[in-house]
Amino acid sequence: MKKNLFWIAILAFVWSCSPSEQELFDEGLRLMEAEEYQKAIEYFDRVLEKNPENTSAYNAKGVALFQQTKYDAAISSFTKSIEKDSSSYKPFFNRGNAYLEKKAFREAVLDYNTANGLDQSQIDIYYNRGLALLGLEQYEDAIFDFDVVLQGNPDNSLAQFNKAKAQLGNNDPVGAVESLFNTVILDKRNGAAYYLLGVTQMSAFGQKEDGCANLKMALNLGFREAKSWVDDFCQE
């Protein structure tokens, strides 16, 4: 009898020491913050063993897979999260990001549209959807999204730069030059912006002196694509 009581006590102790679903999830998040993504996935899998309906664990696992550039596996995990609960914008946004990395721009836009419908306050959705629309050459819609971002934060240099690319695609070199000036004012290390500014100044407006100055700046910043322009058009 005493032996049986002993084993019952041991089992009760082990059971009480078993981490809860929330504790496992929180540890997975901690490991994510420490960039230990594979270990984090193991903890999220343990959560899902306890509760296969935990949509947050599927979403978090997808993020960890995304960080490992395992985009197809991430998409699968985000999709499972959505199947369990489609009321949160997060898995739609995250799945859109994975599609964006795969250059599956149309699928990305569809997910960003859904995410935006669920929460229109998330500025990152507008920016990333703008990138996907840029990839689809839907320039006017991309400009709209980048403008939404810039309304909230005019100092977002990447939004300025990508807006400029959309404006060039939309045959608006005047607007593009303004956006590119804004870009290099905000980020003086953006060689690609100096390059695009210089090319646009020379090709659209015949501004050789200013264009060459910006092309040389791009080259000095390590943007090697500027070299052929400098060699061909900017030698005295």
From TrEMBL:
Keywords: Repeat, TPR repeat
InterPro entries in the record: TPR-like_helical_dom_sf (IPR011990), TPR_rpt (IPR019734), Ycf3 (IPR050498)
SMART domains given in the database record: TPR
Domain of life of the native organism: Bacteria
Transmembrane segments: none
One Pfam assignment: TPR_11
Segments annotated as TPR repeats: 21-54, 55-88, 123-156
PANTHER family assigned to the protein according to its UniProt record, in alphabetical order: TETRATRICOPEPTIDE REPEAT PROTEIN 6 (PTHR44858), UDP-N-ACETYLGLUCOSAMINE--PEPTIDE N-ACETYLGLUCOSAMINYLTRANSFERASE SPINDLY-RELATED (PTHR44858:SF1)
Protein name from the UniProt record: Tetratricopeptide repeat protein
Species of the source: Shivajiella indica
